[in-house]
Write a structure and sequence with these properties.
Strand order of the largest sheet: 3-2-1-4-9-10
Shape: globular
Structural class: alpha/beta
Low-confidence stretches: none
Radius of gyration: 26 Å
Mean pLDDT: 87
Largest sheet: 6 strands, mixed
Helix content: 25-40%
Length: 675
């Protein structure tokens, strides 16, 4: 009797984006690229992420007719961390700076990122060789009882902690013992020098912990309810996979998770080794370059929301441009241009679908007014996050937050002064309130090119926007259809600009944004001027995202090369999440504080040796062990480890003089799957 072939394991990919949560069921069987068995979408529900996740996954399971217990691996990518940084959102955290002066906050954008969050300075820290200054945490200890009431977590950064983390560990333990709140220490995230930028990275990580924790908890709860006993993985910003537990502690590493997954998915779907990948979502457009089948990485650290972090990630440029971008008018000109983003609004079509009469009645009231108002077509609604995340509100913020409820309220009724508008923006930045308004998604509904939400609410919003006046006092558009066409045309043009800007920046050209804007402007201008300008990419564009077929239809002529939109472009992120590998690294540094003494700093240990070869051997052994442990924690049992060493030496009178060595171990392997 012939034995039946063993069924191929099934993999579930999930992508939680700013607007939609996608799910895809994939099998390794079915050819070199495997096979997508089913795919589905559901709205991302920020107040309770489990609702959106269950909607997408249940739909994909029903389409495939699959027993949930047959799934052997679940992998997830997300744009939540990226969107939070772009939109300036996140929990309120306290920053603890050990060995730094207040003037250090002015470096690397740290003061801007800190905003109104509290900071505590403590004496201490180390020098470049790991020698300690005197640590005094008494000021921190005194401040903790009050801070505990107003923050959701802590970020700790000590001077030269990458050479000796002892003072960060002391502060971390003190905070945990007294408050029990999450604490991020900078040495856990980066081994690079540059204290203020490391502090910035740590601060952002601490802000994101509650958000990513809610996402992971929601996903784990859903999987348990469906009897899916499979490991849960998360895509990191460099495209590698890590376990959910790993991601919970280091959520900053999930910035650009969704875009990184999309690159992996783009390569998998098209087979193109060299391409510019542009992924348009609801909130952002993410552009990156594929070279020889691999995404370019940014060794200096990912830049998101205007902040340069120390997170090694895909060399991705993220722009506040998407289907849900805020539509605005250029100020102070006779013929104003359409401006898009960077802020995301809840599309009126979506708000109308979710809240019905509460939205459309307000829009109709505003249309009946004889003259347009500056707040027409704008409504506010609570996001529904847990009340504890509203800790630390000012009096004005708390009063306005009380007025905003679970049903949308028109801003012209809600706000009575410009000061209240600024207060509302702060509530939006904290992730406590959404603003609904006219977006490109609404324009697509008006023109019948999108039909998944409430087209009537979208049309009302377009009518309100069309009757705004230009510098001559004339309506800016004759009809809802006319303004909608202008909005979609603007989105395609801006998409071409950000793609060209990325290409110029990758080529090292200055003024990339200005040149890209000028070239696209000349390409579409009926009277291009005396100087004829043209540009062409050396590789095709891969257009990703559910709205890519709509917004990228006219892209090829603007960028001078093909635009390929794959069949499963709408779930590229979710697909990329299940076809990647686990990859983690560990670093050690060997320095020479004085002649004949070699100091090894690896992980959380610092050791001295009298022989260079012994120190290097110890460093290599350490990083191998650390990388193996991290690989296991990250979700693989079959990691291959490669070690590379880089030496800094000088020659004095013909003699070699050791300065420093940098030892790196990289462990990679396929994630473990359920048996």
């Amino acid at each position: 009797m012939t034995a039946r072939p063993k069924p191929s394991p099934l993999f579930l990919g999930i992508d939680t984006g700013g607007t939609y949560t996608d799910a895809v069921l994939w099998s390794e069987a079915g050819g070199p690229s495997g096979k997508v068995l089913a795919k589905a979408k559901a709205l991302t529900t920020r107040h309770d992420l489990a609702v959106g996740i269950s909607g997408a996954v249940d739909a994909v399971l029903q389409k495939a007719g699959t027993d949930p217990t047959a799934i052997k691996l679940v992998s997830m990518s997300t744009t939540l961390a990226t969107n939070a940084l772009v939109e300036g959102q996140g929990g309120r955290v306290a920053l603890v700076m050990i060995g730094f002066a207040e003037g250090d906050l002015a470096r690397d954008g740290l003061k801007t990122a800190l905003g109104t969050d509290p900071v505590v300075f403590c004496p201490g820290g180390h020098d470049v060789h790991g020698n300690a200054a005197k640590l005094d945490l008494s000021g921190l200890e005194a401040a903790l009882p009050e801070l505990e009431k107003s923050v959701s977590g802590f970020a700790v950064c000590a001077y030269f902690a990458t050479r000796n983390p002892a003072h960060e560990l002391s502060a971390r333990n003190l905070i945990r013992d007294i408050t029990g709140l999450p604490v991020t220490a900078s040495h856990e995230l980066s081994a690079k020098l540059g204290g203020p930028r490391r502090a910035l990275t740590t601060l952002l990580n601490a802000r994101l912990i509650s958000m990513i924790d809610r996402l992971v908890a929601a996903t784990e709860g859903f999987l348990a309810a469906r009897n899916i006993a499979a490991p849960l993985m998360v895509v990191r910003g460099d495209g590698a996979l890590v376990s959910a537990a790993f991601a919970r502690q280091r959520p900053i590493e999930t910035i650009l998770s969704g875009p990184a997954a999309s690159l992996v998915g783009a390569r998998h779907m098209t087979g193109l080794d060299d391409a510019v990948v542009s992924d348009i979502g609801g909130t952002t457009t993410d552009v990156a370059v594929l070279d020889k089948g691999r995404p370019r990485l940014d060794p200096e650290g990912a830049t998101v929301g205007g902040f340069r972090t120390m997170v090694e990630a895909v060399a991705m440029r993220t722009f506040g441009l998407g289907g849900d971008s805020e539509v605005a008018l250029e100020d102070g000109v006779l013929s104003p241009k359409i401006l898009l983003g960077p802020r995301r609004l809840v599309p009126l079509a979506l708000a109308g679908m979710m809240h019905g009469e509460a939205v459309t009645s307000e829009l109709e009231r505003q249309l009946r007014a004889p003259n347009p108002g500056r707040m027409d077509g704008r409504l506010a609604v609570r996001t529904g996050v847990p009340e504890r995340l509203a800790a630390g509100l000012t009096g004005a913020e708390a009063r306005l937050y009380e007025l905003i409820g679970a049903m949308p309220q028109a801003l012209d009724r809600l706000l009575t002064s410009n000061a209240q508008n600024a207060t509302l923006n702060r509530l939006v930045s904290r992730g406590l309130v959404h603003v609904a308004g006219f977006t490109p998604s609404d324009a697509a509904h008006v023109l019948g090119r999108q039909a998944n939400w409430d087209a009537a609410a979208a049309r009302l919003g377009a009518e309100l926007f069309a009757r705004r006046r230009d510098g001559r006092g004339q309506f800016i558009a004759a009809s809802p259809e006319a303004i909608s066409e202008r909005v979609l045309t603007a989105l395609t043009r801006l998409s071409a600009e950000v793609i060209l800007e990325t290409a110029f920046a990758e080529d090292g050209l200055d003024g990339a944004a200005t040149v890209a804007h000028a070239l696209v402007q000349r390409a579409v201008d009926a009277h291009p001027g005396i100087a004829r300008l043209s540009v062409a990419l050396d590789r095709p564009v891969i257009g990703l995202g559910a709205s890519a077929p709509l917004h990228y239809a006219g892209l090829a002529e603007l960028v001078g090369n093909d635009c390929v939109v794959p069949e499963d472009t709408d779930v590229a992120n979710a697909l990329g999440a299940v076809v990647g590998q686990v990859r983690v690294s560990a670093e050690a540094r060997v320095s020479q504080p004085k002649e004949g003494l070699f100091r090894v700093a690896s992980g959380e240990s610092v050791r001295d040796f009298n022989d260079e070869a012994a120190a290097i051997a110890a460093a290599e052994k350490d990083v191998r062990a650390i990388a193996a442990g991290r690989a296991k924690d990250a979700g693989t049992d079959s990691a291959e480890i490669e070690i590379a060493s880089e030496f800094r030496v000088s020659t004095v009178e013909g003699q070699r003089m050791f300065i420093e060595a940098h030892v790196v171990a990289v462990a990679s392997g396929r994630p473990r799957i359920a048996v």
